[in-house]
Structure formats: C-alpha cells, structure tokens
Known about the structure:
The protein is of the alpha+beta class. It is about 30% helix and about 25% strand. Residues about 5-10 and about 15-20 have low confidence and may be disordered.
Amino acid sequence: MRKLIVALACLAGLAAAGLAGEDKTEKVKFRLHGIVADKDGAVLAEALGKLPTVKVTGKPTQEDPTVVVSFTLGKTDVGEMANAVGAAKTSGRSQSKPRATLLLEYTGLDGRAAPDGAALLRIVKDAFPKLKGVDAERSSFELKSKSLLIMFDGSGKAKLAELRKGFPGLSVK
C-alpha cells in the first residue's frame, strides 16, 4: 500500500510539472506545391485541416503558397501532413502533383552564427540521407532566409523532433 501511495504521489508530481505524457503543440511552415488555381490552395489547406489536431493559418495561393500549421506532436507529425497534401485531389493535379516542403529555420549552436557556404552544404548533404521520410535528393536550403527546405519521400515516416536533431552544428527551429 505504501508503494502505491508513493507511486501515485510521483505521478501527481509529474502531472503538475507537465511531464506526464502531455503532448506539445508545435507550429511549422509549409510551402505547398501543385497550386495551379487558387482553389487548389484551399483544397490543400483543407486536406491538412482534416488531420487530428491540425490547424492551418493562411490561404495558400499561386503567388504565396506558404501556410503555418499548428499541431499536437504525438497526434500528428510532418510526414503525415506531407502525405495528406500529396493525396489531395486538386484540379491541377495532372499538371502539377501536390506536395509539401517543410521550411525549418536554422541558426548556429549556442547563439553563434550559422555556418554558410561550403560548411553548410557539407552539414546538410551529410544529414539529409540519414533522415527518415525525407527525399534527400530534392531537399535543400536557402541562405537568405536561413531555412532548410525539407522534401518528403511519401513514406509518412518523417518526424519533426528527428528532423530538428538531425543537423549537427545547427540549431533547427
């Protein structure tokens, strides 16, 4: 009985600290492709919004195909979102297949400047093939916006937490 009371007290402490299985809400940016007409953007946003806990902010268009997606880790993840976009029935599907690119901002570790040029190319070139659910050949980065451009392989296995940890020498947000 005493062990049960101690165990319950520990669980109560964890719950109070927010550590007892509480899922974390995240926000990420996606650039959506396959928008031949603006109504296609609405179809892609709707496909994302049908996933558990996903909320889409922004109206993707041909001119501005970027959306911000809020979701609860543990309920949905970025690989599933990419698959939902890829399966969406857009009017322009025969011209341009729908797909999603995840935009993750990066900085250097511990507040230092992020590497650029050859050093950054070496980091991402080594990291992309090791990441589950990522199309390493099509993924890249933008120096100007300091963003990693993550393309998906269709397996649905990509996990945000793994992507953020997958680039040694970078702090990925």
